What we know:
Elements: E1 4-10, E2 13-20, E3 24-29, E4 35-41, E5 68-74, E6 90-94, E7 99-104, E8 111-121, E9 124-133, E10 139-149, E11 154-158, E12 176-177, E13 188-190, E14 194-198, E15 206-210, E16 216-221, E17 224-230, H1 241-244, E18 247-251, E19 256-261, E20 265-267, E21 272-283, H2 290-298
Antiparallel strand pairs: 1-2, 2-3, 3-4, 4-5, 5-10, 6-7, 7-8, 8-9, 9-21, 10-19, 10-20, 11-14, 11-16, 12-15, 13-14, 15-18, 16-17, 17-21, 18-19
Amino acid sequence: MSAKIKKVTTFGWENCYSISDDQIEMIATADIGPRIISFGPIGGKNFFKLFDQHLGKKNAEEWMIYGGHRLWSAPEDPVISYIPDNSAVDVKIDQETGEVSFIRPPDESNLEKKITMRVATKNQFVVFNELTNKGRDPITTASWGISSLAPGGVGFMPLNKIVTNEKRFQASASLNLWSYTDFNDPAYYWKQDWLEIDQTKCKSKQKIGLWNRVPWLAYRLEDLFLLIQVKEKQQDAAAYPDFGSNSELYFDKDMLELEFLSPWKTLNPGESVSHTELWSLIKIEDGVDNDTAIKDFILPNLIELK
């Protein structure tokens, strides 16, 4: 599907690039990052959480969260993960494919970060996350896409249970917890096949992760659902960071984050690791509850991984 690509100024950043179909728009800034800072209906609500105190900032010395969609390298590290990404990135536009790429030169981690966005089909966008080793020594890491979403909505994480007749009496799924995970938080709402998170009820920061054969996460804001899926066929759970998590969900009083990870990979100089996310924006009819929305609008839109 053809896409419209244009340079824009928004949220205080002068060098931003918009890619859109006739209904949905995604915007990234080249002044910092790489960072996608807006996604939603043209002229409508931005699904991303952006922190007002950081809007338009650049070239600061300390790390800033900013908000939006960012690319990290796993595992989370108190030093490497928080190397400031406050300077300008390179931009490459491919009018033939309709792709816009934002490339951050390697920092102290020796990793180059690249985020590419393009329109897939109507109301669907592709976000490609890639890390490349630009150093002299091997680096073991995983690509990690983190999307910080605006408060006031409900997040969804599938509870993927793998059950076969031979192993029907054995454990069929596992959850991975962080030191600050507390299931007493009133935001958690457990369903048979998915976990529902009401961000408005959150009392403290929380995080949970798992491995899903067909990884997807979703977020509902009013009558719109953001569905994010990973396009690559998944390896066994043991191949992924955080005790085998290919998808994670973080939330606090300010936002809710949908996160996806690639498998671990040892990168020799010049080698890359990546994962590809498919973003869909789905309108839900007025009065439709969350259970019905998931069953009738979300699950039928899941892609089959081959």
